[in-house]
Amino acid sequence: MKKIAVITGTRAEYGLLKPLLHAINEDADFELQLIVTGMHLSPQFGETFKTIEADGFHISEKVDCKLTEDSSEAISKSIGSAIIGFAEAYNKLNPELIIVLGDRSEIFAASTAATVKGIPIAHIHGGETTEGAYDEAFRHSITKMSYWHFTSTEVYKQRVIQLGEQPNRVFNVGAIGIDSINSVELLDSTAFEESIKCKLKQKNILITFHPVTLENETAEHQFQELLNALDTLEDTFLIFTKPNSDKDGHIIIKMINEYVERNKEKAVEFASLGQLRYLSALQFMDAVVGNSSSGILEVPSFNKPTINIGDRQKGRLMSESVINCEPEKDAILNALNKAFSESFKIKIKNQNGLYGDGNATKQILEVLKNNKIETLKKSFYDLK
After folding, report:
1. Among 168, 131, 128, which Cα is nearest to 148's?
2. Whole-model pTM above 0.85?
3. DSSP of 190-208
4. Other C-beta atoms lying within 10 Å of the C-beta of residue 229
5. Domain 2-176+358-370, what fold?
6. What is the pLDDT of residues 21-59, one digit of tens each?
7. Pairing mode, if any, of strands 59-63 and 30-37?
8. Any idea which architecture 187-347 has in CATH?
């Protein structure tokens, strides 16, 4: 069996990878080695490695990034700690391939250690752009360290090739998150309300807002503008999910806690909803608000409006259901009014999906089964 190590560092990333983890685990040609890192190991973010174990997966190694603060200095130090941890994990497990998704700092560290050790890397969701976050630089760096590339659109495939990767190693498989939407049996409204211990209202909004990491000290102002806009809404239930361990994330977490404490009759917060509750929630939301990539990639599959605030996701391909606005109260309210309008709901009811048909896992496995890596020496592909 070919030993494949899959790296996961966040609750959202694990949800995206889950169908692929099951497929590798059940395939006789592969041995799954699951390496858990980042937020999964943090009590502050819910120790979500326990969810992974409850799902029946064996965790082969835990790599602690030693991230205790969300300052730029602390995050830089955590990258160094993570590289050391991954070097030790790879030495112990001896994987023949690692699979990584996305662009976070711990994934950059995992890819760096694999590159130095000479372990081939398969990268999911390369070629995308997020101009407001330093994840942009991490993502493209991971692309250059990777051998196989599985992109979510044809545009992103061409961008990976533009970075010098050979076209025969770049595959447009669609967004892997759509696989879960098609495979998970979602909760009905009664079961969902029981799971969050709250009743939904006439209108319901799911909010996930992350700091814009290439901006300095804007998190508090931008999130307060969002809260000011939400405060004007009547008979609306608010579900907050907390941000990742990004620079200045603690500011938003503190503001969420304080807001929910003051508004218990209409708001609830979660460190992590988990995949089932999150996807189930989307059925009942009138809008998803914030600046999460999920609002761009997965939410459009439910034909629900996304209010995408600010520049964090700037540069991504966006469906008709995504409404972009500035991080200011009036702009957010205008976007919400548009999202709630009957004309907009009708407009997006049958929108075309930009991110595939939910068949990414099958395509990725076919590539890994039917192709061999003869050498890691890569020739730079120049555009003609």
Report:
1. 168
2. yes
3. HHHHHHHTS---SEEEEEE
4. 23
5. Rossmann fold (3.40.50)
6. 999 999 999 999 999 999 899 887 778 899 999 999 999
7. parallel
8. 3-Layer(aba) Sandwich (3.40)
